[in-house]
Each structure stands twice: as C-alpha cells, then as structure tokens.
Write a structure and sequence with these properties.
mainly beta; Immunoglobulin-like; 4-stranded mixed sheet; 8 strands; about 0% helix; rod-shaped; Small_HSP; Hsp20/alpha crystallin family protein; A-crystallin/Hsp20_dom
Amino acid sequence: MDIYRPQVDISGDDKQYEIVLDAPGLSEEDLAIEVKDDVLTIKGEKEEKHEQGDKQFYRVERSYGSFQRTLSLPVDATTDGIKAKLTDGVLRLRIPRSQPQQSNVKHIAISSS
C-alpha cells in the first residue's frame, strides 16, 4: 500500500474559509475529519481491491493507500460550525469565521491649557 497526498486548495472571504481536497474514489466511510487544539486533520484510506477470476492485470495506475493532511486553523476560525460535503470526488469543508468584536472607541478631547 502506497501513501498518496491529495491536493488541497484553501481560500476564504470575510465570512468563512473553504478547504477543497481532491478525494477521487473515496466515500464518506473512507474519510475522517477531526479538530483538536485548533488543528484540523483530514485522514483517508483507499484500499486496493483485487478482483478474483480469470483477469490478469498488465498495468495498474490507480493510487491506493492512506493519507493524512494536517492544517493549523486561523485564530478567527469557528470550529463549532464546520461543515463538510463530499461530491463527485471532491471534499469541501466550510469553516465559519468569527466576526471581529467592535471595540468601543472613545475620543478624548485635547485642550491647550
């Protein structure tokens, strides 16, 4: 079993971060997503299945194996609201961003006397 490393894109706007990971041939059962101490870990395993019968393979180019991608989350990431969706071999994670707190700014007048 080989180790393979799926490609990841990370983007975001002022409301959320988005992580897109290529996961062709993987199902929800093949993937695990965890968050611990502001570190996001995505694990996956794709098992090699040998077909029984009279087939003789002369070449196999599909990747099999396991992977783990570990990403540090930004300070403003809200881990409670993470959503994950797997569609057509692409895993998308949406991580909400916390809104910066409005600071109460008080202007102080300056006198010359």
